[in-house]
Amino acid sequence: MSMAMGLNPVNGILVATGLILVSLNLALASYATGEVPAAVEEAVAMKVKDDICENTLCTEVSEEWSESTSQRDFFAWHITNVDEVIMDNAEPIYEKIGPVTYDVTLKREVDNYDIKNGLLTYKQLTSYSCSEDTLVPCSTEVSQLNIAFNPQVVGATGTAINAVMDITKTGFVSGVVGIHLKQVTAAQAVADEIQYEHMANLAAVEGPGDIYIIDTEMHNSAESYFLEGMFEAFNDAYGDAFLDDDTKTYLSEGGVDPRWVDGVWNDDGDGILEPDEEWGGFNETGSRIGDLNGNGIIDNESSSFVSTLNLDYAFYEAVGPDGENLSLVNYMGPLVYAAMGEPDSLEFIQENPEESVTLERAELWNFAHPTDLNITLARDWTLYGGMGALMLDYGAGNDDYLTDYSEDGVNLSVRVERLFGIEMDDAVASDVLTMGDGTDEPLGILAVSESGTSFGLTEFLEMDQTTAVETYGVTGYQHQVLKKFCNDWMDNVATLPLILVGGEGYISASQFVNQTFGSVNPIDNEYMEYSLNIGGMWGTGTYGFPAGDPIDLTQEQSSEMLYGDWGLTTAKGASMFLYGELSGKTLPINYSTEERTEAKEWTNETVAEIYGIDVEAAGAARLLMMEVVFKNFVPDFLIDSFGTSKYLTQPVDNWLLGWHDPVNAYLATGDSENMTAGWTSLEANETFFGSAAYVEGGISTGDPAKITICTGEADSCDKGETVQVGDSEYVSWRNKSKESATYGLINAELQSETTGGFITGDGDKIDLSGYGTADVKCEKESTLKGIPVDVCTASMDPLERSIQAKLINSGDLLDAIPGALPVFFGSDVEIKVEQLSGAIIGGKSESTFWLDTRNITDQKTPPEMSDLQEVFVIKTAAELDDETAESMESQIVTNQDFFAFFTNFDHWSDYVALSLWIGGFTSLLIGAALIFKGDSKEVSGSKWGDEPESTDFTGEVKKELDEPNEEPQPEEL
């Protein structure tokens, strides 16, 4: 058959072979592409470990892992009118600044590898450097809230109360030492003069008979003789000293003789006591005889004189109501006598005998005349004027005794010797007592700062002997004596007799603090400024203060309120109090047992219950703590003392990476200018920015973070996820210890296992830089550089995430006090996840720090978004590079293409597949060609000139051709 298409066995074999090869290749394609997911899973199963470790036991690590760098963009909200905000409390005007770009380098080292459980722990340090690509310089200055200031104010409130009480105590002791140097030394000199000069000298000329200057038979004594002389001097000086008229005397002004020798005679037998009027003669034995008192009765040797005045008591035996030694030969006698003030007038005594200082002294020193007030008054004037004159002679009246003693000639050297019993040069005494007086750095025992809020006595007592010797020029022994004297007062060994100020009993330095905090100052009868009576304003009904009686707590009540379990001078007590004021609630505990219970409303009644005081005192305590101390004293003190501020203006570098805070430095070292301490920052850089200028290599921000991840070698965790940060299962700033310290106000939060580069699709969470975790949701699909991806998101609502406890992180109740640092954190994250492996191959995040702008006293309720103001934003973005993307596309996308899986030649099967495709298509093409070519002989015998052989088929064809046909005919050749 000439037209049988050349079908023969060879042609069939070729075609069949081609079809078989193509079929084999299709089967291989199905197998190869079907194996891709498993191959991908196998490939990434150890990727976490392989990216880190260079060997099985991970003793060597990849250089790319051990140190890597990426970029972050920061935006800050700058307050353009910060001066008006500070000075006038104006509303802040904000301006967005950024992006400020930093290169962020992570340095890692393996800390532990648990191959059995598939856990790898490493340490990580983070360091920042300003990027060359930054559009806004990292040195750009930004004015913003000083995040350290408010926590310092809250945290310092208890410290401030304690400091005020310490200042009160130190001020009391300093004042007492001053009184001793000014007046006690004078009183000591007066007492010594009376005893060792006057009494000793007069005793030598005292005896019976007129051969003695002081005739004891006439019932004179050294004491009466001394007082008679004192009256004569006083009488002459009275007009000049008290009336500004030296022509007048006490007697000329109506005064009477004090009669320092006074009594009655006991006559024989008549039982009548009459005043002695005159003396009679002597008998042969020398005894006085006759009618001694002129009453007509002859007195004999049995007659006696009964004195109405016991001067021995005044000079040697007088005691105060609390056992004070008030004898005139002891310094307390002259001191108290002079301190009680000028005698009363006769009229005042008669009208107000219960309030008369003259009658009080007459009773204390037992010199009252039994019948004549004028004589009692004259005696009081004699002693007051005489003792006062002596006190003045010894320098008691010189208010400038520390610097000027030109009038009385009593220098500091003399006073120091009298008081302390040590010899000291006047210049040295001046230094040790007054150095730095009136300056910001008082050092002398009696030196006071210009502001009146600090005392040199504090520095003196804290100074070691070597430093003191170098500073003041004293000897070691002198320093020892001075320090012991001062410490006795500070340690409540020595006490002040309140009789000096018209009171009763004794008071120590600590008792003085307690007394003045809750009641009146017993020394001047005034009220202290930083006390429940607030300088006497409480109860006045003026300037917003309530009307009523002054607060009058006992010393014991004040002590409990200041230093008890919830003492206001303690961090615990002050924080509790401020929590109540700023939250409007008590702590959720029983204040006696500290067992958990329902919180109550914070009211005067609850404060009174906590401290065991009356409701009025509780109200005064609240006013003192909030209005006086918290809102005014503490902020002003921090600003004035340390140069800090509620707002700071500094470069972005400092804001993010470190600045020196003088208050923190002072709290850490006692020196606000110590540049080796007190640094703070917003980001955890490896070292504080700028600290290298003070410490070689810079000051570390802390130990490296310790992170434990899952390598995927065990089934207990998902590969790549972060299992734990730090050494605890709890979030570092929300742990069990903080929950206990805050009485459950900050709940402990278990660390969540967060993704470390892979998404499983089952309960995945993402870590938001330690501020919290967010659930991952994958709801869209897309491609990234040709790679199919799931688009996943995670977000955190700032209204749900206060980060005050992280930023302050004091570990105690301060972290939970509303408004202490009202910063909230919000974040939005988008990640792109390769669909087969679950690997995160791209993503971006925007994290925002928000500030609650409400007044701190208005933050009892959670904020709304309208209350929040952006202050800082961090933006990051990353995706796999082009080379990695091309490789991944080839390995995953291409390898899943049914007809093109082999085109990347990344496996032996790719070459087999290519061979099969070539062989199959070649066999098919050749076989097809031979089939359509037909028999080679018949084809070769046919000529264009030959006549065709006549057949039925050709006849049929011809017939068919002859029939009409509507189809277009081919053109003739």
Structure description:
With 973 residues, the protein is of the alpha+beta class. Among the domains are: 60-147 and 645-711, no CATH class; 156-182 and 411-435 and 445-640, no CATH class; 212-262 and 308-393, no CATH class. 39% of the residues lie in helices and 16% in strands. The protein is built from 30 helices and 25 strands. Strands 18-17-3-2-1-25-24-23-22-21 form a ten-stranded antiparallel sheet. A three-stranded antiparallel sheet has the order 8-7-11, with no helix packed on it. It has a two-stranded antiparallel ribbon with strand order 4-14. A hairpin with a 5-residue loop joins β23 (823-834) and β24 (840-852). α1 packs antiparallel against α28 (908-933), α6 (149-203) crosses α12 and α13 packs across α14. The longest helix is centred in the first third of the chain and has 55 residues, at 149-203. It is elongated. It starts with 8 loop residues before the first helix and ends in an 11-residue tail after the last helix.
List key phrases describing it.
single chain, 10-stranded antiparallel β-sheet, 30 helices, 16% strand
Question: What is the beta-strand fraction?
Answer: 15-25%
What spatial form do the alpha-carbon principal axes imply?
elongated
Stretches where pLDDT falls below 50 for ≥5 residues? 1-6, 25-42, 268-280, 894-902, 935-973
Number of strands: 25
| Neighbour order of strands in the largest sheet | 18-17-3-2-1-25-24-23-22-21
Query: SS-based structural class?
Result: alpha+beta
In which range does the helix fraction lie? 25-40%
Main beta sheet strand tally, sense and closure? 10 strands, antiparallel
Distance between the termini: 27 Å
The mean pLDDT is 86
Q: Helix count, per DSSP? A: 30
The gyration radius over C-alpha positions equals: 52 Å
